[in-house]
Amino acid sequence: MTLKPFYFPAKRKTTIFLLTAAATATVAAVSQTSNSAEIHGFVRTARAVSTVASTIVDYELSLRGLQRDSDQYRQTIPQVHLRCAKRFLKLCEANRGFYVKAGQFVASQRVIPKEYSSTLSALQDQVAPLPYNVIKEVLKDNLGPDFSDMFLSVDEQPIAAASIAQVHHAVLKSGHEVAIKVQYPWIEQQMNFDTRTMYFLSKTIGLLYPQYRFEWLPSAFAESMSSELDFVEEAKNSERAAKNFYNNKMVRVPHVFWELTTRQVLTMQFCSGHKIDDLDFLNQIGVDPEKVAKSLMELFAEMIFVHGYIHGDPHPGNILVSPEGCNGFSLVLLDHAVYRELDEEFRKDFCKLWEALILKDSKKTMVLGERFGAGKFSRYLPIIFTGTTIESKYALGTSVEEKETMKKELKSLVFEDLSSFMESVPADFIAIMRAE
């Protein structure tokens, strides 16, 4: 069999050429600068551009000639997604810093292909810490050269390391156990460089594939990251959350020690516990996972429907299960850097949406979906929030027949549909979807 030569459309060929030229230019720029920070930034950009270019080629070559509604397309696309997701995972691991955070952010988006979310979720546990001598300099700059006099002890080995900071256990002179969150010294400069790269790449993808509109993703990410870099704002968010949950005995928010808190250092009460998805730990302390899941749902329902103030990064590492509590356990809510305050009118409409979902009022669901900007995707809102189809007779749960109907409906969706949906709905809606 003779294979026909494959040609990229002129527009895509030009854009791929520009990507390649951009990668070459960054390599050339590296050789012309002696600034180590600039060199590091250029190398990181070259890696990112190269990854995106190779991903575009992979999709083009793998899917050429395949009809989007064909079985062959449906069989091939998950394989391409997985290959490309692994490619982006390597990029995030190599570039570290904000790329790790960006990978975590993408993994938390419920509408991206599962191959990306499952692959990139590995980034939550793969951040290597910095040596303590680097962290010590940040502490000196923020708390004073004699900062160690304020503590009985500071553990040099971190208890947690994330993409922008790491956490050390310490004991104050008063005897209080604290957790000190220390920002990496180079992270803000790196963020400015990396976000520009992300904007460039998202616009490039949009030029190649107008149906894949990703501009909302770097915008949402940059907004959340600017909040995460100011630990004073995080401390204020933490205190507001603590006030909101003051009467909820199942939720604990660590106390902030303001005299030891700055823009780059956050000192808070140390709360012991394990990740909420650590089933071995739950079995060890004799706690029913279903009770924990129920408490978690009630926690976020209270955020959405009562306070209108939602935690913006609700992954398992930020919610601990502590063996202390009135029912044998409590939930410890960590990392209050990013919150979303819901618009009051939006919140009222969202309450009405849930009422319509529970009462199986399909007409009202569609009307509210239109109001949220979901358009033709309004019929999928029951699937997103309750796991049922819009025609389902059940408020929660589905019959075997309805599950088959749901599978067929979801198979009819392609990725550009999801991209269009995410671009159309308001930011408040996306924030709730991350928390669901």
Q: What Rg is obtained from the alpha carbons, in whole angstroms?
A: 24 Å
- What is the strand tally? 11
Specify the overall morphology.
globular
Overall average residue pLDDT: 81
Number of helices: 17
> What is the straight-line distance between the termini?
51 Å
- Name the poorly predicted regions: 1-11, 13-18, 20-34
Instruction: Please state the structural category.
Output: alpha+beta
Which percent range describes the beta-strand content? 5-15%
What does the main sheet amount to?
5 strands, antiparallel
Detailed description of the structure:
Keywords: Signal. This is ABC1 atypical kinase-like domain-containing protein. It comes from Lupinus luteus. Belongs to the protein kinase superfamily. ADCK protein kinase family. Residues 123-365 form the ABC1 atypical kinase-like domain. The structure is a single chain. This protein has 436 residues and is an alpha+beta fold. 56% of the residues lie in helices and 10% in strands. Strands 1, 2, 3, 4 and 6 form a five-stranded antiparallel beta sheet that branches. α4 (97-107) crosses α5. The longest helix is centred in the first third of the chain and has 28 residues, at 36-63. The radius of gyration is 24 Å and the shape is globular. The model is unreliable at 1-11, 13-18 and 20-34 (pLDDT under 50).
Give me the secondary-structure topology:
Layout (H helix, E strand, L loop, with lengths): L9 H22 L4 H28 L7 H25 L1 H11 L6 H7 L11 H12 L7 E4 L5 E2 L3 E8 L4 E7 L3 H22 L7 H13 L2 H14 L6 E2 L12 E5 L4 E2 L3 H6 L4 H19 L1 E3 L7 E4 L7 E4 L5 E3 L2 H15 L3 H11 L8 H6 L13 H12 L3 H10 L2 H9 L1
Parallel strand pairs: 5-10
Antiparallel strand pairs: 1-3, 2-3, 3-4, 4-6, 7-9, 8-11, 9-10
